[in-house]
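Saturday, quiet lab. Running sequence design on the structure tokens for the scaffold JK sent over.
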């Protein structure tokens, strides 16, 4: 028994697994680099973006959101990197606690979004309608709306007539725009066989009824199309949510394993210190 105890307390023995230590370090290093990239993109977008009016249609500035998330992610992964490399229990605990909080917040957001789906839909409707109003104010916003209308085969928020709320497309007598009573080209029904694309296919279609307009453009709104897409891709969305959760759970598990190993190593060192002069060992 004495020999087994002596073997277990040799100076080169360690409870801290190198596999766990460097796996956790590399895990945090990867996300640390991703955080730096997110901050850089956010700063670049914020500096180069001048269309403040267009961004007013969004509850949160995407560039600012990207910077905030990037900075938080940078600080958390920094604690994980240094904590794992230096075997620092305090930093590893901070890293683990933040991961648990983020995971619980994501879980709560998903549950609340499911319970208050009607309010979530109303908020999405408000965002899309505001985006329609500011369609011409920012090129990036315009490209995003055009992409969504083409991909989902829709036009406007609830219907193609929502484009009357845009100052360039409304049908008021005061509007002297060439696009008066029209809809964007991205609303049009495009045939793959067309040799020459008519970019003015949406001209004046707000003056027509749904049946007449449906021959040339998509008349259904993008909100219903988006809801239908979500319902038909629940497994895909679930997979994305799981893909976001797995790295967090892995980080929590590895950090807890390493914390326990470090504590066992400390206990071993304390035991050696107390019994280093014990003649019976």
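Result came back. Writing it out in full:
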């Amino acid at each position: 028994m004495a020999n087994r105890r002596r073997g277990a307390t040799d100076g080169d023995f360690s409870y801290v697994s190198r596999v766990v230590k460097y796996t956790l370090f590399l895990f945090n290093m990867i996300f640390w680099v991703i955080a730096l990239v997110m901050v850089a993109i956010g700063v670049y977008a914020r500096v180069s973006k001048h269309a403040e009016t267009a961004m007013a249609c969004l509850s949160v500035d995407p560039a600012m959101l990207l910077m905030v998330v990037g900075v938080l992610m940078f600080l958390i992964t920094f604690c994980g990197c240094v904590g794992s490399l230096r075997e620092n229990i305090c930093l590893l605990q901070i890293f683990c606690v933040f991961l648990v909080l983020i995971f619980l917040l994501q879980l709560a957001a998903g549950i609340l979004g499911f319970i208050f789906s009607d309010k979530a839909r109303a908020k999405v409707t408000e965002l899309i309608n505001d985006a329609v109003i500011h369609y011409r104010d920012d090129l990036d916003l315009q490209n995003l709306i055009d992409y969504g209308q083409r991909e989902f085969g829709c036009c406007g928020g609830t219907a193609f007539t929502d484009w009357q709320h845009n100052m360039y497309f409304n049908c008021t007598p005061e509007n002297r725009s060439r696009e008066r009573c029209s809809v964007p080209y991205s609303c049009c029904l495009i045939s793959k066989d067309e040799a020459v694309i008519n970019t003015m296919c949406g001209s004046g279609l707000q003056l027509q009824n749904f049946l007449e307009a449906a021959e040339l453009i998509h008349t259904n709104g993008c909100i219903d199309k988006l809801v239908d897409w979500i319902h038909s891709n629940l497994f895909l969305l679930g997979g994305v949510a799981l893909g976001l959760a797995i790295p967090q759970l892995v980080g929590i598990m590895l950090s807890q394993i390493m914390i326990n190993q470090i504590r066992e190593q400390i206990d071993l060192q304390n035991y050696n210190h107390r019994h280093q002069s014990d003649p019976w060992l």
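Notes for JK: The CA atoms of residues 79 and 218 lie 51 Å apart. The chain has a mean pLDDT of 82. Ask whether to fix the surface positions before the next round.
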